[in-house]
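Can anyone check this?
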Amino acid sequence: MGRNPVVGRQGPGYYAATIPAEADAAELEVKQIRSGIGHAATMRRTLEALGLRRHQYTVRLPNTAAIRGMLYKVRHLVEVTPAKE
């Protein structure tokens, strides 16, 4: 058996979402890419507050400080992109 190719590419540095600044995008598209199961209840409640009800669900949110703070908390569970006009 060979070496596992994934070793060394694990951790939030490799799959955590980068959140655009308010000046870069007025609205954000947020997609849940990992499940909230097995994570703290506060993270699951944050996903629910963002409107993400299930895995692979996408929502469109305004780019405000409050939303960016929530996204930062669950950045390893979501994918964030600027919304297309």
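Reply from J.R.: I decoded it. The mean pLDDT is 89.
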